[in-house]
Design goal:
Length: 342
């Protein structure tokens, strides 16, 4: 006697096809032609994710070694964890850096030519962006780490100094390139080197209200945790997507590097720095400097404060309204030829 007979009529059911690949256009070009396809970017690992993976899967690795490799490679577990003890693999990073040339200026992340040197960062979920449908869709190119950016800048300044200046001082920004990361690194080095800088208050109705500020030459302190920020020292976050600022001299100065005319301030980032800026009862002025190239300095306008869902918020915490004042600070890229590594 025959058992149960199952009849499966042909039918179509809705399904999602997911293609996981390197961000190389040649791989996903045809797939991207289909209707309603969309592209999302997978972020590199955070330090917390690397630390958790080490404890569970690679407990034999010294945490200090893993942290050191994270500071070099960024959040790439293959080299920070899996190949942590593999010397030939570890040497690959310096080999990639040594190959950097002017082609880096036009790199947009669509090949693997610089995948060890340049990482794609994206808009991961955070309290500032609650619309889950928009997560992981933006692409921002950043150097893999502070170690990499310093090594690359040293190489470029030594061999392609004039090309670097022309690239950074071009009137029209090349969207999607590494220009933003290059400008940020140059600006950091100029500020750390110290000197006299031109600045103006963004509340002023006239661009002729220009003053100068003198910054001392000092070493840069990199911080992983906000508790590591020291007063009166130039501190910059190791985290590439640190919210709101690129550097801080606590408790009176914040620095945000940008070559774009629109760069809103995220309130959540300021809240995280509140205690280092004097706490909620602070009464002193906190100078929020937008560090700008010369061609943007005079036209740059006062920026909005953003809160949940990236919407403008006029009801800021009282201490922000009371203490934080916005300024434009000019970086003269003509002086890039005089920058020395500090």
């Amino acid at each position: 006697m025959l058992g149960t007979l199952w009849s499966i009529p042909p039918s179509k059911y809705p399904a999602k096809t997911v293609l996981v690949c390197l961000p190389e256009k040649s791989i996903y070009h045809e797939f991207d032609k289909y209707p309603v396809t969309t592209i999302h970017y997978m972020p590199v690992w955070s330090d917390n994710e690397v630390s958790s993976c080490r404890a569970k899967i690679f407990p034999h690795h010294d945490p200090t070694l893993v942290e050191e490799l994270f500071r070099k490679w960024g959040g790439i577990p293959r080299f920070v964890l899996e190949k942590a003890d593999d010397y030939p693999q570890q040497k690959n990073l310096d080999d990639e850096i040594s190959k950097c040339d002017t082609s880096l200026f036009n790199y947009v992340g669509d090949t693997n030519n610089y995948d060890g040197v340049i990482h794609i960062h994206t808009n991961s979920p955070d309290e500032e962006n609650l619309d889950v449908s928009k997560h992981y869709q933006k692409k921002v190119l950043q150097f893999a780490s502070q170690y990499v950016s310093e090594k690359v800048m040293t190489k470029i300044k030594s061999h392609f100094k004039e090309d670097l200046c022309k690239f950074l001082m071009a009137d029209m920004p090349r969207l999607g390139t590494i220009r933003g990361a290059l400008f940020e690194e140059v600006a950091h080095q100029i500020l750390i080197h110290g000197g006299r800088f031109k600045y103006r208050h963004l509340d002023s109705i006239t661009t002729s209200d220009i003053k100068h500020i003198l910054l001392d030459k000092q070493n840069c302190i990199e911080f992983q945790e906000i508790s590591q920020i020291e007063d009166d020292k130039y501190c910059r976050p190791l985290q590439k997507n640190f919210t709101s600022v690129d550097a801080i001299i606590a408790p009176t100065m914040l620095f945000q590097m940008t070559y774009c005319p629109n760069h809103p301030i995220k309130i959540s980032g300021l809240k995280s720095l509140q205690e280092k800026l004097g706490g909620p009862n602070a009464q002193h002025e906190i100078m929020f400097f937008f560090v700008l190239p010369k061609q943007l300095y005079l036209s740059f306008q006062k920026q909005q404060f953003l809160t949940l869902k990236n919407t403008a918020n006029e009801q800021k915490p009282a201490w922000i309204t009371r203490c934080i004042k916005q300024y434009a600070l000019e970086i003269d890229l003509d002086s890039v030829t005089e920058i020395r590594q500090v």
